[in-house]
Amino acid sequence: MPSPSDHARRRGSRLAAWLVAVAVLIVVYVLSAGPVLAAGCWLRDATGWEGFYAVFFLYLPLFPLADVDLFEAYLMWWMKLLDTMPPG
Predict the structure, then answer these.
(1) How crowded is residue 53: how many other Cβ atoms within 10 Å of its Cβ?
(2) What is the pTM of this model?
(3) How far is 25 from 35, CA to CA, in rounded Å?
(4) DSSP structural state of residue 1
(5) How far apart, in whole angstroms, are the C-alpha atoms of residue 63 and residue 51?
(6) For 19-50, what is each residue's pLDDT tens digit?
(7) What is the pLDDT averaged over residues 6-19?
(8) Is the pLDDT of residue 3 over 90?
(9) At 13, is the pLDDT very low, low, confident or very high (cuts 50, 70, 90)?
(10) Confidence band for 67, pLDDT divided at 50, 70 and 90
(11) Within 13 Å and on the Cβ side, how many CA atoms surround 71?
């Protein structure tokens, strides 16, 4: 029969695993913003169909980060890489 300390240790390691998983998902979400938004803008430029701008809705929670110089530079780097510009 497992002791209470074994149960607490397993519970703590499960919590740590969940926290790491959530942190990794957040990092992947933020890093995926650049290529996905740039691809949406490039597709709009290539086809003329405004519907490709719908990808911006996926990243609405990140728009306040656009004021952060590093994040804005990251997005603009992807835009330059695909030779496109954001809407506006």
Answers:
(1) 15
(2) 0.81
(3) 16
(4) -
(5) 19
(6) 999 999 999 999 999 999 999 999 999 999 99
(7) 82
(8) no
(9) confident
(10) confident
(11) 15
Closest by Cα among 35, 36, 30 to 66: 30
Quick check: 67 and 73 in contact, CB under 8 A? no
Evaluate whether 55 touches 40 at the Cβ level (below 8 Å).
yes
Which residue is it, tokens 């942190």? Answer: 23
Write out the DSSP string of 74-87.
Answer: HHHHHHHHTT----
Cβ atoms of 75 and 66 closer than 8 Å = yes
Residue type, 61: P
Residue 5 exposure: Cα atoms within 13 Å on the Cβ side: 0
Q: Which amino acid belongs to residue 47? A: T
Dig out the tokens for 31 from the structure: 């890093």
